[in-house]
Write a structure and sequence with these properties.
The structure is a homodimer. Chain A is an alpha/beta fold. Chain A is about 35% helix and about 25% strand. In chain A, helix 3 crosses helix 4. At the A-B interface, helix 4, strand 5 and helix 5 of A face helix 4, strand 5 and helix 5 of B. Chains A, B: It holds the Pfam family AA_kinase.
C-alpha cells in the first residue's frame, strides 16, 4: 500500500452547492489539495427548483427521488449541465484543471436500471462497473475529473445515480492502483450523536458503534445510506474515509468523523 | 501534409438533433467513421423550448441569440447537459467511445465575452484559444470528444458560443498536427443556389463564387456565418471542408458542397 500514489476523492453535498459563498470556499480548498484528486457532486435542490419552474412535481420515496422521464431530463440538465459546468469553470479559474465527467462519457461508470420491487424508482441506476483504467488515463494527463451523479446503462439510457454511492464506487475501483482518501463534505461537522447539535460529532466511528447508534435512532434518514457506503468502501480496501464540513480539506483540521475498522 | 494523421471533425445541425430518427441515423454513421474524430453540436430549438417551458422569452438579433443570465443557464443545461449527455450515451451504445466535452473542461476552448458595440449579446463568447495539446491527449487515449457549444472565459464565466465557429476553430487548431476533414452536417444537400430547391446544391464553392452568390442574395441568413467559418478554416490550413446532409459521412456519397480554394 505504501507505494501506491495518493488520490483524494471528495464528494460535495447539496447544501454546500446551494450556498454560493460556501461553494466558493469549498472549491478554493479543493483546488489547493495537492496530488491527484476527483470531485463528485449531486445537486438535489437545484434539480427540485428547476423541476418546479417547469411545472413538474418532484416525487420522493424514503428520501430517494423517483425519477420519471421528465425528472431524468431535469437531473441531466442540472447535474451534468448547469452544476457540473459551473463548478468546472470555477475550478479552472482557480488553476485547477477540472474536466466535467459523467458515467456516460468514456463509459466511466456503467449502471443497471434498478429493478422494480416494491417501489419503481424510474430511471435510477445502480452501479455495475467503474472504468478505472480510463479514469486513471484522465488523471495521468493532468485532469481533475468532476463527476455529476449521472450514469448510463451502455445501451443509450442515462440514469440518475446517488452521488454518495458514486464516490464510494470510484474510491473502491481506484483503490487497486491508488491509496485513496475518500472525503464526504457536507454542512455538518461529521456524524452527529444528536442531529441538532453540531458539536456532538463522533471522532471515530466503527461499524458496531454505527449499528448501535442506528438501532437506537440517533443516526437516521440520509445518514444511513451515506454511512452504508462508507463502511462498504472501508471493507473494500479504501485507505481512509472521513465525513465532515469543508474545513476537513484543510490540513490540521481535527473536526470530522473518521470511519474506522472495528478495534481488535 | 501526407504524414499527418487524419482527423474528422463533424458539426451536427440543430434540425437533425431535433429529429429523433435523423439523429439516430446520423450517430450511427458517425460511429462508423474510421480513424480519429470529434463531434460538435449546438441545439438551438431544444434550448428555446426549455426556455419557453420556464417562462423565459428567447431574444434574437440578426438570427443570433441574445444570452442573458437566465438564457445562459438554459443553454448550459440543454447543450452541455441534456443534448451532450444523450448523444454521448447513444454513441457509447454504438461502441463509439464518446466523451462529453465543453470549452470549460480541461480548458479546451477559452473565449472572451463579446464586447458591446451596437448590440449587447450578453454571455456570448468569441473563441480566443483552443487547447490543441489537451484535445490530442483525449484523442490519443481513445476518446471521441463530443463538444457542446459552451465555452468559458478562464475566470469562471461560462459563455454561449456558436457551434459552427467552434467546429472551425477546432479544425484550425488541430490542423497543426492532423490532416483535418471538417464536415458541416445539416438537413440540406449542401449550399443551395435556390434555398427552396434541395437539388440546387453547389458541388464546389470557391470564395469568389460565394461573394457573388451573397451579393445577389442567393445565399443569405444563417448560411453566411457558416460559410465565413468555412472559408476562414480553408485559408488557415484545414485540409478538406464540406457541407451537406448526414449522407455525407458515407463514403461514395457525391451529394454535398465542397469548399475549395480559388481556381488558379
Amino acid at each position: 500500500m505504501q507505494n501506491k500514489t495518493p488520490l483524494t476523492i471528495v464528494k460535495i453535498g447539496g447544501n454546500i452547492l446551494d450556498d454560493a459563498q460556501a461553494l466558493q470556499n469549498f472549491l478554493q480548498d479543493f483546488s489547493m489539495l495537492e496530488g491527484l484528486k476527483i470531485m463528485v457532486h449531486g445537486g438535489g435542490k437545484t434539480a427540485t427548483k428547476t423541476a418546479e419552474n417547469l411545472g413538474l412535481k418532484p416525487l420522493f420515496s424514503n428520501g430517494r427521488r423517483i425519477t420519471n422521464k421528465a425528472m431524468l431530463e431535469v437531473a441531466v440538465m442540472t447535474y451534468a449541465g448547469l452544476i457540473n459546468q459551473s463548478v468546472t469553470a470555477a475550478l479552472q479559474a482557480m488553476q485547477c484543471n477540472a474536466i466535467g465527467c459523467s458515467g456516460a462519457g468514456g463509459n466511466l461508470i456503467a449502471a443497471i436500471k434498478r429493478k422494480v420491487e416494491t417501489i419503481d424508482f424510474g430511471f435510477v441506476g445502480d452501479i455495475s462497473t467503474v472504468n478505472a483504467i480510463a479514469i486513471e488515463q484522465l488523471l495521468h494527463i493532468g485532469l481533475v475529473p468532476v463527476f455529476s451523479a449521472i450514469t448510463h446503462d451502455g445501451h443509450g439510457q442515462l440514469l440518475n445515480t446517488n452521488a454518495d454511492t458514486i464516490a464510494a464506487a470510484l474510491a473502491i475501483a481506484l483503490s487497486g492502483n491508488f491509496k485513496v482518501r475518500l472525503v464526504y463534505c457536507f454542512e455538518k461537522n461529521g456524524v452527529l450523536q444528536n442531529a441538532e447539535d453540531n458539536n456532538s460529532y463522533i471522532s471515530e466511528l466503527d461499524y458496531t458503534t454505527y449499528e448501535n447508534l442506528k438501532n437506537n435512532g440517533q443516526i437516521h434518514s440520509g445518514m444511513l445510506p451515506k454511512l452504508d457506503n462508507c463502511f462498504h468502501a472501508l471493507q473494500q480496501g479504501v485507505a481512509a474515509i472521513s465525513i465532515g464540513n469543508p474545513e476537513i480539506l484543510k490540513s490540521g483540521n481535527a473536526v470530522y468523523t473518521k470511519i474506522i475498522h472495528q478495534p481488535a
